[in-house]
Amino acid sequence: MLRTEIKPDNFTYACIIRACSESFYLEGLKLVHCGVTVSGLGLDSICSSALVTAYSKLGLVDEASRVFYGIPQQDLPDLVTWSALITGYSQSGDCGKALFFFKDLNMEGKKADSILIASVLAAVAQIGNVGPGCEIHAYVLRHGLESHVMISSALIVMYSKCSFLGMGTHVFEIMPEKNIISYNSLILGLGLHGLASEAFRVFDEILRNGLKPDEYTFTALLGACCHAGLVKDGREIFRIMKD
């Protein structure tokens, strides 16, 4: 295409940017970014959103942030772009910036989805600060999102890691529907607080309800055994995992 007189448009560049991010081709992404800038599409909202998502996925969240702030005021970022940036900061361990941009998102009047909320709650859990977690929980309740299993499971883990296991247990108990992810979250929380016997009780409940334990279930149980000093039980769980 470049050898002809046909010039790539913003949609073409966006597709190439996405291909680079999905193949983790950083050098190619930077070359395409240069091409976007030279072509005069550097401020185009479609290209900018694609670049923010790509850089965030590749862990270059500061570069993603620079592109994000370069989006013109008249072309406000959509939820996908916001989510990519916030999730990028959360996964890179910069929880402070993840929370900062989440608050900015709310100020812009945009409604976060379950995936984004779970990502931000994971960031809160990493820093162990229950204050922002409670604010997000209030946001969830205001917007009627408490029935989402992904969000409730993230709340359980967040409260558990912030030393508020009782709140995490309460979230689990009032969930209208539970799946293996929510059970795993509770087992993880109980294990972190050394309550191995309670963790095994929840495991028995999983089996009674006909749910199939996965690798995360056994990893959480193994962690519970380690925290409680149950060497024999831990070895048995490890044996089951290997089998």
UniProtKB/TrEMBL annotation:
<keyword id="KW-0677">Repeat</keyword>
<feature type="repeat" description="PPR">
    <location>
        <begin position="78"/>
        <end position="112"/>
    </location>
</feature>
<dbReference type="GO" id="GO:0003723">
    <property type="term" value="F:RNA binding"/>
</dbReference>
<dbReference type="InterPro" id="IPR002885">
    <property type="entry name" value="PPR_rpt"/>
</dbReference>
<dbReference type="Pfam" id="PF13041">
    <property type="entry name" value="PPR_2"/>
</dbReference>
<feature type="repeat" description="PPR">
    <location>
        <begin position="214"/>
        <end position="243"/>
    </location>
</feature>
<feature type="repeat" description="PPR">
    <location>
        <begin position="179"/>
        <end position="213"/>
    </location>
</feature>
<dbReference type="GO" id="GO:0009451">
    <property type="term" value="P:RNA modification"/>
</dbReference>
<dbReference type="InterPro" id="IPR011990">
    <property type="entry name" value="TPR-like_helical_dom_sf"/>
</dbReference>
<dbReference type="Pfam" id="PF01535">
    <property type="entry name" value="PPR"/>
</dbReference>
<protein>
    <recommendedName>
        <fullName>Pentatricopeptide repeat-containing protein</fullName>
    </recommendedName>
</protein>
<dbReference type="InterPro" id="IPR046960">
    <property type="entry name" value="PPR_At4g14850-like_plant"/>
</dbReference>
